[in-house]
Amino acid sequence: MRILWRPFGFSRLLKVKSCNSTESKLLIPLAWTTLTQKLRKVPGIFFLFQRKVFSTMAEMEASKSKSELFSPPSNVRGMKNLDRTAFKKTVTIPVLKVRKEIANRLLRSLKRSALQRPGIKRVIEDPEDEECRLIMLDPYKIITHDSFEKAELSILSQLNVSPQISKYNLELTYENFKSEEILGAVLPEGQDVISGFSRVGHIVHLNLRDHQLPFKHLIGQVMIDKNPGITSAVNKINNIDNTYRNFEMELLSGEENMMTKVRENNYTYEFDFSKVYWNPRLSTEHGRITDLLKSEDVLFDVFAGVGPFTIPAAKKNCTVFANDLNPESHKWLLHNCKLNKVDQKVKVFNLDGKDFLQGPVRKELQQQLELAEERKPSIHIIMNLPAKAIEFLSTFRSLLDGQPCSSELLPRVHCYSFSKDANPVQDVQQRAGAALGISLETCSSVHSVRNVAPNKVMLCITFQIPASVLYKNQTINLENDEEPSVKRQRKDNDFLEEKTETAPDT
Ligand SMILES: C[S@@+](CC[C@H](N)C(=O)[O-])C[C@H]1O[C@@H](n2cnc3c(N)ncnc32)[C@H](O)[C@@H]1O
């Protein structure tokens, strides 16, 4: 997260998408000259300046100094070992004095203007009058009684409350600051505070940049303190380029235990996060593929991990053949099938993907495709190993013997890949097509899964394996037997075979 409000003081402005009146009033006090210039370029901010162009200089100055109000004290800058006591600070807050019996009722009507800080009560006792209470107000919104909205003033008048603002000295401690405020105050000024993190059960998983590394233990501890349920913070050490795609990680703070439990799309998974692959950013993709499956379908999950495609599919009453080369993934896959009560629907394997395709998949496909037409299920093959899955596609070439079944019953492959190409869709179609020896450009769909890094995307290409690829010794009558799309494929296929003759073996 970039602390834009430090140098510019308008992070909230940058988050504004539409300009409703509440937001625009909130933003008005921050309208300094430099700020104004920057904001002119932000779409949708136009109304801000129309609403209160008449802010007084005094108001502007007051709000300028208040932009630092909720920053921790400046002496914490550069702190490496977390000293929570160093975060104490006293700030002056606008308060409204009201009779105690109406305090809570009034607070509901002043929601917009009330102070919202972690751990700070918004209604406190009045130290000078036990019959009264003080409602803490947001100093960014309420500067004088003029800052109240019309509706608020009308409620105050109805309840016979004077809109006169008083001041209260509030002591802020470490508990009252948000993690981004703490890290923004500690880390070097103007630099990224945290460049992204994900949560896996009780573990927060960070990916720290070089300038953040001297502060890594403090960052880990702050993330634990500020995120309920998090008790471990780890940092990714290297890119995942090992075979099993699990992260090399370093414990920054908290408990060493990496045995965790997560919920994804209503299913539960348990695993040792230090030994297997798990990415919470794939939950939408797992859901998308699951939605394509129907009861009674057959699924081959070639790189299954701990089961995020397998288990939802089995729950949908699909028959699943799930495989992973990592013995730890295999162990947790078996465990999660039992945990989610689908072990009767899943056959689990611990093979290299190629051996899985040439062994159990081939055998099962042969049987399934020989069934009578009306009993044939839809068959899906998921290949989620984006760095390498395309290389495994060549295994489908001449995998089966016998006569091809009708084209709509041929297996549907969902194969994942990364791409750094300027045209990632074409890139994936071409590489997948080359591995199969056909052109996929007119008979595949490509779904963009997520941006992995600047200029690197993860995609999923979906296609049916043509009979001409899947079956041995195919002599297809081009003129009579094939559908137009297949004819076109074979034409491209011939062309590609010529072109890829000298290409490296995929
Ligand atoms: C990117 S993860 C995907 C896991 C899971 N499908 C998911 O969506 O979270 C790829 C998985 O493939 C496994 N794997 C890597 N190389 C393999 C191979 N040659 N054969 C079979 N599995 C492999 C890894 O252990 C890892 O669990």
Classify the secondary structure makeup into a structural class: alpha/beta
Give the strand order, joined by hyphens, for the main sheet. Answer: 13-12-11-14-15-17-16
Proportion of residues in helical segments: 25-40%
Task: Round the Cα radius of gyration to an integer and report it.
Answer: 30 Å
GO molecular function, one term: tRNA (guanine(37)-N1)-methyltransferase activity
Family: Belongs to the class I-like SAM-binding methyltransferase superfamily. TRM5/TYW2 family.
Biased composition (Basic and acidic residues): 491-506
Catalytic activity: guanosine(37) in tRNA + S-adenosyl-L-methionine = N(1)-methylguanosine(37) in tRNA + S-adenosyl-L-homocysteine + H(+)
Description:
- S-adenosyl-L-methionine binds at residues 286, 324-325, 352-353, 384.
- Its EC number is 2.1.1.228.
- Residues 491-506 have a biased composition (Basic and acidic residues).
- This protein has 506 residues and is α/β, with parallel strands linked by helices.
- The protein has four domains: 2-49, no CATH class; 89-172, Alpha-Beta Plaits; 184-257, GMP Synthetase, Chain A, domain 3 (2-Layer Sandwich), CATH 3.30.300.110; 277-501, Rossmann fold, CATH 3.40.50.150.
- The protein is built from 17 helices and 17 strands.
- It has helices at 11-15, 21-27, 33-39, 46-51, 57-66, 103-109, 150-158, 179-186, 216-226, 283-292, 310-315, 327-339, 353-370, 389-392, 424-436, 467-470, 484-499; strands spanning 89-99, 123-126, 129-136, 165-172, 197-200, 203-206, 232-236, 249-254, 259-264, 267-272, 298-301, 319-323, 346-349, 379-383, 412-419, 444-453, 456-464.
- The strands form four sheets. Strands 13-12-11-14-15-17-16 form a seven-stranded mixed β-sheet, with helices on both faces.
- Helix 12 links the parallel strand 12 (319-323) and strand 13 (346-349).
- It is elongated, with a radius of gyration of 30 Å.
- It starts with 10 loop residues before the first helix and ends in a 7-residue tail after the last helix.
- The structure holds S-adenosylmethionine.
- The site of S-adenosylmethionine (SAM) has 20 residues, from loops.
